[in-house]
Amino acid sequence: MGKYLARRILTTIPVLVGISFIVFALVSFAPGDSISLMLSNETVNVENVAKLKAELGLDRPWYVQYVSYMGKLVKGDMGRSVQFNRPVAEMIGEKIGNTFKLTIFSCLVSLCIAIPLGVLAAARRRSIFDYSATAIALVGVSMPSFYLGLLLILFFGLRLGWLPIRGLPTYDSTFLKQIRYLILPSITLGSSMAGILTRLTRATMIEALGQDFARTARAKGQSEMGVLFKHAFPNAFLPILTTFGMQFGSLLGGAVIIETIFSLPGLGMLAMNAVKFRDLPLIQGTVLVFAVCFVAVMLIVDILYVFIDPRIRYD
Amino acid sequence: MKKRKTIFSGTPRLLKVFARHKLGIVGLIALSAFIMIAVFAPVLVRFDPYTMDLEHAFVPAGSGGHLLGTDNFGRDTLSRLAYGARISLLIGIVVVTLAAVVGTILGLLSGYYGGWVDFTVMRLVEVFYSFPFLILVIAVMAILGPSIFNVMWVLGLVHWPSYARLVRGQVLSLRNIEYIQAAKTTGCGDARIIFRHIMPNTITPIIVQATLGIPGAILSSAALGFLGFGVQQPTPEWGSMVNEGKDYILLNSDMILWPGLCIFLVVLSFNFIGDALRDTLDPRLSKQLK
Amino acid sequence: MFRKTFSAIILTALLLGGSTAAFGATPRSGGTLKIAASSLQSLQLYKTAANDITDSQSVIFDTLFILSKDDFKPIPSLAEGWTNPDPLTWVFSIKKGVLFHDDNPVFPKGTRREVTADDVVYSIEFMQKTSTAYTLGPITGVKALDRYTVEITTKTPQPFLVNDPNRLCRMCIIPKEAIDKLGEDGFAKHPIGSGAYKFKSFSPDSGLLLVKNAFYRLPVYLDAVEFVVIPDPLAQSIALQSGEIDVIKHLFNLEMADSFEKNPKFNVVKSGGGSYRGLGFNTTVAPYSSPAVRKALSMLLDIDTAYKAIIGDHGERAYGQVPPWVPFGYDRSLKDLWSYDPAQGLKILAANGFKDQDGDGFLDLNGKPFKIEIKTLAGSQVKALTILATQLREKGINASVLTQDTAVWADDLLKGNTTVFFDYSFAGTTGFHSLFHGSMIGAANTHFYNNPEVNKLLDEALTKVKFDELSSLWKKAQRLVFKDTVGIPLYFEYSYAVASKKVVDFVPPWGGLTLVSTENNVWLNK
After folding, report:
1. Three-state secondary-structure class, residue C64
2. Average pLDDT of the residues in C37-65
3. Sorting pLDDT into bands at 50, 70 and 90, what band is C486?
4. What are chain C's partners, defined as 3 or more CB pairs within 8 angstroms?
5. Which chain A residues have a beta carbon less than 8 Å from that of C229?
6. Average pLDDT over residues A298-308
């Protein structure tokens, strides 16, 4: 067990290094860089920008800069943003809370829709629940997130005025108020995952309910509810968990669009602006944080998998 | 030797099963409609999608021959939607083809040879999987410049891992089957084994994956268009049309409603077909598509 | 004698009565003014020219002078006045009794720390040392002549030092102790100045809260000013309509201006300034190296129709680069250089080798297919450029607009990897020089234009500190540049602020946001 864990964690390292290398090379070879962008500003102070360039070591060849960056990173120093001259770690720290709130809330919304709906659909085959579950699932998967977001804004925000259309209220607000602001963005972000998980839950539950152990339980006198929750669901749980972990990555990726539409200042927007400005340390920082989150979730899912089903072993 | 079963044997039976999936049929019909519109767009539409008519901006649906009205530049919405269909469908198909080809080749090699090849390919898969995809795409688009070609190959780059994993899984389970072993002992070359014996058995899941992958590619390219990367104005692309319409949402919501609806309907059709296909070809297949 | 006094009393009464009638209600104290900002990442001075950051800084800090809302001429703020003993020397005398904010980590509550000439000297030197986004120009020396007088010497005459919104106008007065104690990073997290409102709290990219500085040298009415970060312009408009915010200081979607104007709950305030929108040519690349070709292309454009379709009357046609709000150099007579004459334009092009040889409906150049790709940034100008590209297509030129990522656009411009591009400049005073002076090649002169005659006129103009002398030289240079059609001015876009009716006396920012001054003082009429 411990060996498996250790091996699993170790394999994430080359992945993260690979990602940081690709990003670094990509931005270094890109046309345009942060310094020339500063210089294109008419009012720029040319001397001081040249000094800044030297200070940040931006005049060194890219591979030297990469090694230097990685060296600092291992010590926990993510560098300073070129654009704002602030520590990258600080800037990410400010934004990550928002992205987390959005992501977790979206996951909750998805799960709260998907699991009950999927279970109900499996329990009542060919009923109205079954068909509506499938319909909702298909809509969720097929609807472009930005379209759904705009539609929700249009109807619930503008026409009806029920819900706020911004992601966050002003900064000194209560937790409850924040939830109200997160409703529309979370539904938008979570819709696709909700669709996938609903179908998956339904499918795995149907399969589990048809298995021998379920029939045995029924024969032994278990109530339908008991069969559902004590026997079928635990078996269906694993594939749901795995898929959830995999979908989490696309959730993080989709956060950028949601943040743009709903004016939610999070990591996605920070990353996009950093790309726009070729702010290499900031780009690296945000990409790595995203990647680490994703990898961590996958790791947790894999570990839970092993714990829950001791029959499974990494091949 | 017994006649080898290919996926094409038993086709008439399969078609009958497919036909029982009502949703699948609906999806097929809808998709065919879109494809027809896309292919015959120049003949079907009355107005040129690029011609501006500034005097007639935001004309409501139905007036002046504009079945769906006009946009902020006075361009006919229906024409732009029709031409947009060409772009979205083209991108979807090309991206998936590219991803499937690259993914299959790497998956075959990885599964068959194992060892270092497998290790490298799998790490590559994880790297691409873990990349916050949108950021990768945005970075590349920003750097290389927005164009339909760049959209296609960048999205292909993002989607190949799932095919590689799928194929690798298939290869691993097939590798030790008897006739493969037999082929090896009779001195069959690796390439021959891979392409004549293993690959045909992987085609079915690849096709299903591809059918389900096209809607994803269409959604991704629309998202890029919406963010301002991807296909540029004045070329009509559904995602960028929604982006343009966003500015006018308080004045006229039509501009975002129609293109978004088109994206939704096309993707939905593909999903209907994909579902039906998956259930038809092999109900047990759904387990292998992880 | 009685009559004289009586008349005097009547006169005074009339005047007083008239004046109160004219000025309406008396200002009331209290309330928090909520202003929308698109982005507010950091409060570090001089690192970025982003308006939201500089606007909020101009509320916290004092500057020596501000730009008058009527004609953008500099009027005293912290400084009482200034003189030029000679063209290379500026002497500023500052007001007495101005205090830095108290009740912060550097000055405990109750501290009376007066702003002196030494502080001004320190602040100028700080700006020279740390500023990347702004430059003061070639300053050779700064020193305090006495407790309230500062002398600045420059290498060459600098008429723009006080007349440009981006030079000395941006210099914020800061206390040395704060930088020493908090460091630059720490000071950015808790800025201390002597402005009308003092720093209370900051949540990067979320909000900034400033509270009343009771010791300010002018009366301050608002209890607090809050900058609320709302990145999306649409969301800003909606927040304004719902009352979540009170002011949008720069309306990005001009389409919304009309609907706000019709709405009795809001005031649309037109700023004195705006932006310049034009096309530029890379004059080193054929066929754009030929002035005749450039002129011919300009004749194919119906600029009036194009810009009016996008912004209506929220702007005006530009015939030159210098905008009407710059106090010198604006020249309406340049109108005679431009005409919409497609027939003539096509004739000139034909004489220069343009002919449709492959029959595709588009002109080819010397047998090869000819394309124009107008490179631009994203922004409101893209719509106008799209219309112009369509106009060119209708005339037979295969034109298209390429919206580029900002960094790529800037890079292409600097490297000369361009042909026709969107000419971007701050429509301040130095714009024309930056865009067209030979010495600016490799920086802002992305046309790679080097005309010795123009250079000479501009150099001479820069030695004149008085505007009327400067103006005639400036105009001559402008005429030369546009006779050569180095660029095609399109339009000036006005800038608007929108405020709810209860906000009184709000002035759209220019060279900084001024909430309290001798010209205006914002208060809330609830």
Report:
1. coil
2. 92
3. very high
4. A, B
5. 265
6. 76
**pTM for the full predicted model:** 0.84
Within 10 Å of residue B221's Cβ, how many Cβ atoms?
30
Q: What contacts C109, CB < 8 A, 6 or more positions away?
A: C102, C103
Give how far Cα C251 sits from Cα of A65, A101, C35, C279, Å.
41, 30, 12, 23
Residues of C in contact with A53 (CB under 8 A): none
Q: Which candidate in A52, A84, A101, A150 is best for mutational testing of the C interface (most C CBs within 10 A)?
A: A84
Q: What are phi and psi of B9, to 5 degrees?
A: -75, 145
pLDDT of residue C4: 59
Q: Which of C255, C400, C405 sits opposite B251 (nearest CB)?
A: C255
By the 8 A CB rule, do B124 and B162 touch?
Answer: no
Tokens of C499: 């405020």
> Do B246 and C234 make contact, defined as CB atoms within 8 angstroms?
yes
ipTM: 0.81
Asked whether the predicted pLDDT for residue B178 surpasses 60, the reply is yes
> How far is Cα A178 from Cα A76, in angstroms, rounded to an integer?
32
Q: Chain C: give the shortest CA distance to residue A163, in Å.
A: 12
Phi, psi for C261 (deg, rounded to 5): -65, -35
> Nearest-CA neighbor of A9 among C445, A107, A1, C364?
A1
Write out residues 236-275 of B within 8 Å (CB-CB) of C: 246-251
Asked if A36's CB is within 8 angstroms of C407's CB, the reply is yes
Q: B249 and A286: CB-CB below 8 Å?
A: no
Are B123 and A11 a contacting pair at CB < 8 A?
yes
Between B135, B222, B239, which is nearest A290 by CB? Answer: B135
Q: What is the pLDDT of residue B286?
A: 43
In angstroms, how far is CA A151 from the centroid of its own chain? 22
Nearest to C234 among B52, B54, B249 (CB): B249
A43 and C166 in contact by Cβ < 8 A?
Answer: yes
DSSP annotation string for B221-271: HHHHHHHT-SSPTTS--HHHHHHHHHTTTTT-THHHHHHHHHHHHHHHHHH
Q: Judge whether C493 and C311 are in contact, CB under 8 Å.
A: yes
Tell me, what DSSP letter sits at residue B76? B
Q: Name the residue facing A138 among B132, B227, B268 (closest C-beta).
A: B268
Confidence of residue B72 (pLDDT cuts 50, 70, 90): confident
Instruction: Provide the shortest C-alpha distance from residue A171 to chain C (in Å).
Output: 6
Nearest to C158 by CA among C470, C500, C476, C416: C470
| Closest residue, chain C, to A267 (C-alpha) | C205
* Contacting residues for A105 by C-beta, under 8 A, at least 6 apart: A179, A182, A186, A190
Find where tokens 């009012």 sit.
A43
pLDDT of amino acid A158: 72
Instruction: Measure in Å the smallest separation between the Cα of C378 and chain B Cα atoms.
Output: 9
**Interval A70-119: pLDDT, tens:** 999 888 888 888 888 888 999 999 888 888 888 889 999 999 988 888 88
